From TrEMBL:
This is Sodium:solute symporter. The keyword Transmembrane applies. It comes from Mucilaginibacter defluvii. Its main location: membrane. CDD domains: SLC5sbd_SGLT1-like. It is found in: Membrane.
Length: 550
């Protein structure tokens, strides 16, 4: 439980974010009515600049799930799950170099809209359905679950009561203000979230006495592998080094390059350079989570081994053995390591992650439903009707997410549960996007069949692994399963493209690269702001980091 001062700080922060969100969104729409209400509401009138895009991308990605579950993973397996954060930088480079030009050039409002221009209407419909479903499960429901666990522990309020209140307040400014409200509040929330995460990391590090005492403790207990991000074959984590390099790109390209909730910030860019540099800016920020989200969990493990962090409240019996249920380790760190007054800042950081994730997902869902579903059946729909439909869709999505919480709570690790689901959703989508922009012979019929059959295969494999965990399928780690499913989808689309040869339209003829080097041609900003310079710099930094923590 936390004190009254911290409660006041938390309440003031929530009210401040709601007021800023409402003010910025409604003000922007009021000033821009002549430009078209729907474009202003869903894409902020395509006025976003690179700092806002980068911060909003990061804020939409980082949520309570990351704060809570990355600390849990640091406690359980050390720095290993930091791979998900650092590998994201490589996929953001792909987004900036190869995907952004087509997204901006085609002038699409949604990614399903892009898929229709490159392939056909059937591909668009399927991606719209999957995008809405994934936004509800991955971006909203899992975030609510992580936030609810923390708020229940800290405030003693029923989990469902707390998440319903936060959900309603977030939906209020998101539905009223549109994308402008989302990106403005996300920029603020990112800063608060980072400040809170740094405070936690410093507090844990100071309590431990620094890096060296932690390393000494790990060495004494034979746990030096916790400092390694590149694990050998047969590692108990189920995530050896090759699964990271084979499996993550399948998850990452879908998440960062083909998921509406994430890419919508890029679609609202002022121009191509702002979109590219904003994506790369997010890539640089993604270096931080390993040190401020994962490392505190590792510090917590070391502190518990030295008796400086009391984890008795988390202990439970499993198969006759007493083990630590590490889901609540972040909350435990807040209550035991953070002085009063700063606890309110940490709670504000948690709420920042929760609210930014929800707001981004709701705005994307409303955009998808309005443009890719409603407008298809009512092509003459006015901007006012599109916005109204989007607002209704956001409200329904929020309710569905709340009802899913009990089911998702069955996962032992929230972070692994989230990525397990992504591993079975992503392969066919990653496949059709990659082949679509890099292979001119990828046909519309092949895209449709690959999306349908690939998604069906993913569902069958997922259900089989859960019903028969001892089977061959059930024993395959989710990262490698993502790679195997992706390979199957590539073979499907290659075969179907041979059987059903491509027939390009006027739009699709311009939406693939004849050569990857074509992406590097054309005018761009000069100096350090040039996207090519930034891409090389980010590649070098990430390569050095992976070498140091190999």
């Amino acid at each position: 439980m936390i004190g009254s001062v911290d409660i006041i700080i938390t309440v003031l922060y929530i009210l401040g974010i709601v007021i800023i969100g409402l003010w910025s969104g409604i003000r922007h729409q009021h000033k821009s009515k002549a430009k078209g209400a729907a474009g202003e509401y869903f894409l902020a009138g395509k006025t976003l600049r690179w700092p806002t895009i980068g911060l909003a991308l990061f804020a939409t990605n980082i949520s309570c799930v990351h704060l809570v579950s990355l600390a849990q993973s640091g406690f359980d397996t050390g720095l290993l799950n930091g791979n998900f954060e650092w590998m994201a930088s490589f996929t953001l480079i792909l987004l900036a170099l190869f995907f952004v030009p087509f997204y901006i050039r085609s002038g699409v409002t949604t990614l399903p809209d892009f898929l229709e221009k490159r392939y056909d209407r059937a591909s668009r419909d399927w991606l719209a359905f999957v995008s809405v479903l994934s936004a509800i499960i991955i971006h909203i429901a899992f975030s609510l679950l992580a936030g609810g666990i923390v708020l229940q522990t800290l405030f003693g309020v029923d989990m469902y009561t707390s998440v319903i209140i936060i959900s309603l307040l977030t939906a209020l400014y998101t539905v009223a203000g549109g994308l402008t409200a989302v990106v403005v509040t996300e920029s603020i929330q990112t800063i608060v979230l980072l400040v809170g995460a740094v405070i936690m990391c410093v507090a844990a590090g100071v309590k431990m006495g620094g890096w060296e005492p932690m390393v000494d403790m790990l060495q004494q207990h034979g746990q030096m592998s916790k400092l390694s991000m590149m694990r050998p074959h047969g590692d108990s984590s189920g995530m050896p080094w090759y699964s990271v390099f084979l499996g993550y790109p399948v998850l990452g390209i879908w998440y960062w390059c083909a998921d509406q909730t994430i890419v919508q910030r890029v679609l609202g860019a002022k121009d191509q350079d702002h979109a590219r540099v904003g994506s790369l800016f997010c890539g640089f920020i993604k270096i931080l989570p390993v040190f401020i989200f994962v490392l505190p969990g590792l510090f917590a493990y070391a502190l518990s081994q030295k008796g400086l962090l009391d984890v008795s409240a988390l202990q439970t019996m499993v198969d006759g053995k007493q083990v630590v249920n590490s889901k609540g380790v972040y909350t435990l760190m807040i209550t035991q390591l953070i002085p009063k007054g700063l606890v309110g800042v940490l709670v504000a950081a948690l709420l920042s992650g929760l609210m930014s994730q929800i707001s981004g997902a709701l705005n994307s869902i409303s955009t998808l439903v309005s443009y890719d579903i409603y407008k298809r059946y009512k092509p003459q729909a006015t901007d006012r009707q599109l916005v109204k439909t989007g607002k209704i869709a956001a409200g329904v999505a929020m309710l569905v997410s709340l009802f899913m919480l009990p089911l998702l709570n069955s996962y032992e690790s929230i972070f692994n549960g989230l990525n397990d689901i992504i591993a079975h959703i992503a392969p066919p989508i990653t496949c059709v996007f990659l082949l679509g922009i890099f292979w001119k012979r990828a046909s519309a019929q092949s895209s449709k069949l690959t999306l349908w059959l690939g998604s069906l295969l993913g569902v069958v494999v997922f259900i089989t692994s859960k019903l028969m965990p001892a089977s061959v399928i059930g024993q395959i780690p989710f990262m490698m399963m993502a790679f195997y499913l992706f390979c199957a989808c590539v073979m499907m689309q290659g075969l179907f493209s041979y059987v059903h040869p491509v027939r390009h339209t006027t739009d699709s003829e311009t939406l693939y690269w004849n050569s990857p080097f074509d992406a590097l041609k054309g005018p761009s900003w000069k100096g350090i702001g040039n996207y090519k310079v930034l891409s090389v710099l980010l590649l070098v930094i990430m390569s050095v980091l992976f070498y140091l923590f190999r």
